[in-house]
Write the structure tokens for this entry.
Amino acid sequence: MKSLFGFLILACGLSMAQDGAKPAATNVPGAQYPLVYPDRRVTFQLKAPDANKVQVHLGQTFDMTKAEDGTWSVTTSPLVVGFHYYSLVIDGVEVNDPASQTFFGSDHQSSGIEIPEPGVDYYDVKDVPHGQVRQQRYFSTVTNAWRRCFIYTPPDYDSNPTKKYPVLYAQHGWGEDEYSWVVQGHVDQIMDNLIAAKKAKPMIVVMENHLTALKPGEPRLQLGGGRGRGGTRPDFTNYGATYTEMMLKDLIPMVEKNYRALTGRENRAMAGLSMGGLQTFQTTLQHLDQFAYIGGFSPGLPAQAAFDKIYTDAAGFNKQMKLLWIGTGTVERDSNPNILRLHEDLDKHGIKHVYFESPGTAHEWLTWRRDMADFAPRLFQ
Amino acid sequence: MKSLFGFLILACGLSMAQDGAKPAATNVPGAQYPLVYPDRRVTFQLKAPDANKVQVHLGQTFDMTKAEDGTWSVTTSPLVVGFHYYSLVIDGVEVNDPASQTFFGSDHQSSGIEIPEPGVDYYDVKDVPHGQVRQQRYFSTVTNAWRRCFIYTPPDYDSNPTKKYPVLYAQHGWGEDEYSWVVQGHVDQIMDNLIAAKKAKPMIVVMENHLTALKPGEPRLQLGGGRGRGGTRPDFTNYGATYTEMMLKDLIPMVEKNYRALTGRENRAMAGLSMGGLQTFQTTLQHLDQFAYIGGFSPGLPAQAAFDKIYTDAAGFNKQMKLLWIGTGTVERDSNPNILRLHEDLDKHGIKHVYFESPGTAHEWLTWRRDMADFAPRLFQ
């Protein structure tokens, strides 16, 4: 009897879960799959009668099973909440799921899936006043090229034509671009919601691409290991020098000329995720006179000398800086505790800072959305 | 001797062509393939050691050939200039080329390739003043939802804070979205360049999504035939009614409240490509009091009654309308002469209009870029 009873409960549980299943918000219009269950399991499906092997790569690998009609499918174990890049592997070739929207990461267009967090809506489009995100072109004298950035202006920007705003410069991660903080990060929605709740000051957010900021003939720095996954780590002593130079000579002056931006270091913050966190440290720690707020979201770390320099005068650094903020997901921390170590080091040297952990998340966008939601309210107060 | 001489010329020609070959502008960073030759042939390449058959779908189908190292490749015949959607077919499954950026069309993210036109730069980023493209959210009472549109503001918009501008509403095609006129169409670059050359008046361009404008519970109209390719044609008598209602009640009032827009029909144009051209006719021909400029770029055609109505009073229509503009590519015209027929019908009934043909192009974005470059200078003069 026990085994039959167990079977009935299992069947009932599956049926209930399927009742509340919904196509992922990241699907293209009309695509039923990927289908997300309330318990965060996901069914992926692909029609591929002539394929010999189809898998889903999503942090881990799931083998799909072929039905008689040539449809492959798999239902995963419950996934972590938030946004995940993923791909299909069809007969050994890693490609996008035709049913998914695409998201630029690791230097290519990738499928992505959003697993909803019940009761959490700070990064959704809500019934609040909305700012704009503007595609802004400008000429960079340092790279000798026209470039594009995206600029978030807060909801009251156009209706308050004399008001000036402080500015956050927000950097994406490895192989992403100047639009990633909007598409994957929902930064406009996070800011709209924080501002509406009076949790953050209205501010301008500038998003540029530190990976393409190269002087004529300057090679793009590779992280090593093909598409930047693993491999050798380059010398970071001078990493991002061109971007730093371009920010100071071209980007910041353009923003402060064309937007109603408050000027000076106390009205300027810089934050970045992963490689963008490395860029942030490289730029800000060498130019403390330009930035009073620094955010490292699961940051790559610069050469130790960058920190040794501030350790020599902790009191001076603490007096000068309004905020040094670092964060990591607990899942990524468990495999790579470098941010936790930095936190301990900063403590040991008496450097004031905020250390934030995102529970249960890895080196992924939900960690960085949570980071932004904690970081932005601390700015310009 | 003749055959040897011929061989030498061929080899020499290939060698010269390869010298000037460049990765397509639509590739992801670092991707060498697709590689475009000066004679517009393209080499596609994919590493797929375990695949049995790989093809490129690009209007026509090209079989790829497998080398010993598992790399598949093919060099096409010379392609038509402009932007083409394409896909790879790996063991029968149609997927994106991992080396290509993605472009939203036919309701999915597709690979795309830009074949340059020598000496043509009106849709490139040039050294001219640039406008902005703004992501604008607004609440639609008709669809009872927050929606997103993109709004081009001309270069002098922010520096001329009292100046008002006329507005063009520009619609995308089947399965595309409110960002397509920017990404595939380069409309911001076309407008920047026309305005800099003083060929077009500075104007605001509003881009919304007519395919997602649905009341709660209203089904999305399918063109038939799966992803909208072929199949039965629905009754177009009332097609796009919700979008028209939403434009008049929500979108136009929002634009005229939040932007420095000139109001009234003589400051309002609407144009669209393909299904967006159908939407344009459906909206404008029923609301001649709201629009003085109409553009159909390879448009889908509404039910005949829509035209019969204006044929009953050609003189009145001619007096009221500032511009009725229709265009088609000569290649699409040869297989489907419906726009040419409409032109002849309009002539027969004495309706003043402009008829434009794009030489050598099909139902594709280069036709519509050329359309915009001819249409926009005729507006608001």
User: Anything to note?
Assistant: Residues 1-17, 225-230 of chain B have pLDDT under 50 and may be disordered. The first strand of chain B starts at residue 22 and ends at 23.
